Amino acid sequence: MKIIVLTSWLILSVSIAFSNAYMPLKDTELESIASQFPPLEYLNPLDDGGLLQPFLIVRIPGTENSTKVQNHVNDFFIKQISQGQNSSSSEIPMWKVTHDSFQDSTPIGDNITFTNICVSRDPELAINEGDKARTRKRLTLAAHYDSKLYPEGFIGAIDSAVPCAILMYVAKVIDKALTRKQAFLNENGVGNENNQLGLQILFLDGEEAFHEWTSTDSIYGARHLAARMENEDIENVDGLIGSGLSSIDTFVLLDLLGAANPRIPSYFSETHDLYNSMRSIQKRGRNIKGLFQHKRRESNFFSSPSVSENVHFLGGTLGDDHTPFWQRGVPVLHLIPNKFPPQWHHLTDDVDHLDLRTVHDWAIIIAAFTAEYLELTNFILDQ
Ligand SMILES: *[C@@H]1O[C@H](CO)[C@@H](O)[C@H](O)[C@H]1NC(C)=O
Ligand SMILES: *[C@@H]1O[C@H](CO)[C@@H](O)[C@H](O)[C@H]1NC(C)=O
Ligand SMILES: *[C@@H]1O[C@H](CO)[C@@H](O)[C@H](O)[C@H]1NC(C)=O
């Protein structure tokens, strides 16, 4: 990603009326995330059966290593995550994985293959006769899985192996809760619209420039996918229409997470409330025994909740995978430290420079945020 100085300053203070679902978890539910799914057991960088370690290789788009990483993601969502649950034999929709593969010209070759991995899990929707066609809505979580060509041997542990592995961890944490909620809705009726919110997880390819960051040498995957989603109707399931792009309720982008002392400002006024919701998870969670590894207020990952302290809303000035989505009107919550960690684009962005306590706390925060957004309160605990 890259700081871009915009020649024409965009006015970002327009307040867009969009209604997010959101329901805070109870303290016991927050606590249970850490105890049932200890983040560092899932995200141990040295465990080759874990979620993180398979990302920690050089993974240039179109190479065999990139395919290995894709297989890791596929296997997790198709074979492992819902073990014991079988989508074709149950009433509960499971995870769907599709690949968005395409070729593009790059400074190192004209036909480089890129592959975005798009994972989704949508609730089964009840459409009553006479209902107007509705657009499916999803919370979208994204990170890029490619690594940078230079310096040679660069594996991008924070950029963005850890963010990708955290997204898999989130899916693991909420998988059974989604199943329980769907079973409940199947029995009791759909209720409100928030129960129709799905989840999409995007593992984007080709974020990094091959040579130097320009509008054509960067974010290959995100540019392709945003354009594609704009032009396609989401599969016309259950009478739902609308472009794939309009199905995105909020686009949450994780980038450069896993180094010590992150500080994330609120980049977009449109998602400032969600930013504060995420911030409050960390604040509340400090009082819950055993939830976080960082317990002191000074280690807050987020800035003050007041709008005045985030007044600059720097979102439009930072080029990253969200850009082609944001330019098409999608609300974005960008989770990237300002400033970037010192390891950024150096060979030191490796396992030795991960701060595992920070990785731990990010995993809990993102998982809890996702569960709150999808209103999984009352479904998180295994009871
Ligand atoms: C594949 O990953 C390994 C481990 O990071 C690395 O040594 C090797 O050079 C990579 N291969 C390619 C073609 O990038
Ligand atoms: C899932 O269930 C279907 C039908 O009961 C069966 O044919 C299929 O082999 C099962 N798949 C797995 C992975 O267990
Ligand atoms: C790249 O692929 C396209 C379509 O597959 C083909 O028409 C073109 O000749 C290829 N270019 C090169 C340089 O291989």
TrEMBL record:
The keyword Ribonucleoprotein is annotated on this UniProt entry: no
Transmembrane segments: none
UniProtKB keywords: Acyltransferase, Hydrolase, Metal-binding, Protease, Signal, Transferase, Zinc
EC number: 3.4.-.-
Keyword Cell membrane included in the entry's annotation: no
InterPro entries (alphabetical): M28_QC, Peptidase_M28, QC/QCL
GO biological process, one term: proteolysis
Peptidase M28 domain span: 133-369
GO terms for MF: glutaminyl-peptide cyclotransferase activity; peptidase activity; zinc ion binding
Record-linked Gene3D superfamilies: Zn peptidases (3.40.630.10)
Signal sequence extent: 1-21
Superkingdom per UniProt: Eukaryota
PANTHER family named among the record's database cross-references: GLUTAMINYL-PEPTIDE CYCLOTRANSFERASE, GLUTAMINYL-PEPTIDE CYCLOTRANSFERASE-RELATED
Similarity comment: Belongs to the peptidase M28 family.
Protein name: Peptide hydrolase
Organism: Nadsonia fulvescens var. elongata DSM 6958
